[in-house]
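Standup notes
- DV: blocked on the single-chain target, sequence here:
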Amino acid sequence: MKIQDLHSAFLANPSISTDTRKIKENDIFFALKGENFNGNTYAKKALDSGASLVIIDEEKYFIDERTILVDDVLTALQQLANFHRKQSKARVISLTGSNGKTTTKELINVVLSTSYKTIATKGNLNNHIGVPLTLLTIKPDTEIAIVEMGANHLKEIEFLCKIAEPDFGYITNFGKAHLEGFGGVEGVIKGKSELYNYLTNNNKSIFLNADDPIQLEKLSSYTKKYGFSTINPKYYHIELMNAQPFVNLMVEKVEINTNLIGAYNFTNCCAAVIIGKYFNIEVPSIKLALENYTPDNNRSQLINNKSHYIILDAYNANPSSMKVAIENFNSLEKTNKILILGDMFELGNSAKEEHQAIVDLTEKLNFETVILVGENFHKTSANSQQMKSFNELKAFLKTNPIKTNSTILIKGSRGMALERVLEII
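- DV (later): unblocked, structure below
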């Protein structure tokens, strides 16, 4: 089947499923493969569950005219998404970066949706499957699509750009994330900059943090750029008022009081402001959108219960985000500060060095208590409590309960699932 014909079928039933457990009536089921599963084997189940079509790439699973055989299901999904994007009048904003992608995407979306019909990546579906699925949610009346792009190795952002063909782009930052796949910080910068390369090569517009020397240098000669800065008069001025604990910023003499914890969220807010301004949204509307946004999904969530003041930032972690979270936590005007930190993953040969650097930082800042969890933190030289696993942490906290009225930062990589600490404390 030609991609045009598949697209016509999609327009008749514009809902995609890749999981038969979540299938809805008239969904088109794409039988994707993974390391431990073969979606082709679920073709009949998908049809029995109400799918209008199933897309397979193994002929032995063909059932009837509702079954479409292609060379490769994933490639067909990506080609369909690109074709759909080309047919749409929506403008596409893509963003990537080491830290803050998902929060920034959410902030951009709440600002732009005050004046435009928007769609945005759900959660962090930002890879070679998530980006196509996001693009396929573009509706006929969609005016702006905000597409998050994640990567853990070189050429991945370049590939995602070929699918999404963004009109605009923004990179949150270049940090120590996925060092194993990128081969070090220079690899991270090169990999994330693939978004810049696509945009500049195609004469598209770029939003930038002009206080970031890497972004400023890479875009020094490019003219279609729109940036924000706290110090550079050439760019749109935004001022950080404070972050005790919530980020307050000043935009055109209007103070915006957000529900976002940590000075590290300041630039995420700034990106939403400058993009909103570019799309002619007035500051009062930007203010209302940012002030009404409340983070969730374990990202810098404030939990103020009767016993403790907790900052839950357990969605993910890398050396850069861990460092700024700890430094921000240290700056809070609170007492009895306790850190519960989990391992950072995908660091490769840098794991030992980066975990020790975090330990050294915590000891330099002299917190009340530091609890380190995971195999990597357990191997460090530390004066802190060290646990190999969450089960050890659970046993420790049951016999050594945290004293009342403590201020607690919980942060670790997704695989550590440290939000489970809440059930104990």
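- Follow-up: The chain is about 35% helix and 20% strand.
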